User: Fold these one by one.
Assistant:
Number 1:
Amino acid sequence: MKTHPTYRVVLPHYNQTIMRSLFFSCILLLSITVKGYSQSIAADTTNKNYIEFGNGGGFTGAVKSHILTQEGNLFQLENQSGATFVKKIKHCKVKHIYRYVIKNNMAACVYNEPGNTYAFITIQLNKQTNKIIWNNSNILTPPTITKLYNKLIKLR
C-alpha cells in the first residue's frame, strides 16, 4: 500500500495577515446579520410621545421591556445592546391605546407598588413622563392599569 506524502502550504506573513483580517471581517459581518435589524430609538422617542411597558424583578432581576411610539413603531429594549425594531403596529390600534391613556388620565396616574416581580408602564405625553409600577401578583391593582398593560402585551 502506497502512502501519499503530506504537503503543508506556508503562506508568506503578509498573506496570513490578510487572511486573518478577512476571517475576522466575515465573523463581524455574520454577527451583525444574525443580530437582526437593530435600530436606535433615540430619534424616535426624543421629545415625542411613547409608551414603554414591561416587567422585571425576581431572582435574576432581569427587565424585559418594549416601547410603542405614537407612530406605531414597536421596539424591544435589550439591556446592553440598545433596542431592536419588532414591527409596525396598525394606526387604528395605536390610536385606540393612546385614546385609552388620555381618557383615563394615565399620564397623571400615581401608582408605585412594586413587589418581588413587577410590571410597569412609562408614558411620555407632551414632554411629561410618568412611570406606573405594580406587583404582578397584586389583585388590588387598579383595573385601568392592568387593562392598558394587557392591551400593550398583546401587541408583542
Number 2:
Amino acid sequence: MPRLYQTFGVLSAAAAAFALMQSLVTPVLPTIQHDLHTDTGTVTWVLTAWLLAASVATPLMGRIADMIGKDRALLVALGAIALGCLLAAIAPSIGVLIVARVLQGLGGAIFPVSFGIIRDEFPPHRVTSAVGVMAAVIASGSGLGIVLAGPIVGALNWRWLFWIPMIVVTLVGIVAKFVVPASPVAAPARSTGWPRCCCPAGWSRCCCR
C-alpha cells in the first residue's frame, strides 16, 4: 500500500505541474509582450501553441504509452515539459518562446498515462476514488496557476514562471523513475493504425484500443 501512495503522489505532482502550465502565463501576457517586443496577436500564440500541442499529444501519446510502456511515456512527457520550460526561461524572442510552449504542450500525455497507471496498479475498488482525486488535482492546478503568477513575477520576473516548474518537473521525473512501476502490459505496435491516429477522427480509436 505505501508504494501505491508513492506512485499516486508522483502522478499527482506530475499532473498538477502540467495543469499549472496552462494558466501560469495567462496573467503575464502583457509583460511578456512588452519584454519580447511583440504585438498582442503574436503573444497570444504563447497560449494557443500550448493548447494545440496538448490537444494533439494527449491522444497520440496515450496510444504510444500502450506500446512502449506507461512508465516510459510518463518520463518522456515530463522530459518534454522540463525541456520546454528551460527553453522558455531563456527565450530571446517570442518565436523561441512559442516553440518552447509547443514542447511543454507535448506533456499532455501525462493525463492519459496517469489515469492508465492508476487503472493498472490500483485495486479495482480504489480506481474510481483515485481518478476522482486526480481530476480534482488537475482542476486545482489550473486555477492555482493564475493565483501564483502574480507573486512570482512581482518577486522575481516572468521567466521564473518557467524556471520553477522546470526544477519541480525534473525532481518529479527523477522520483518517478524509481517509484512508478513498469507497465504490466505493452501493446505491440501496428503500423496500420498510425494513419488513423494522425487525423482527429481517429484519436478516440487510438486511445481506446
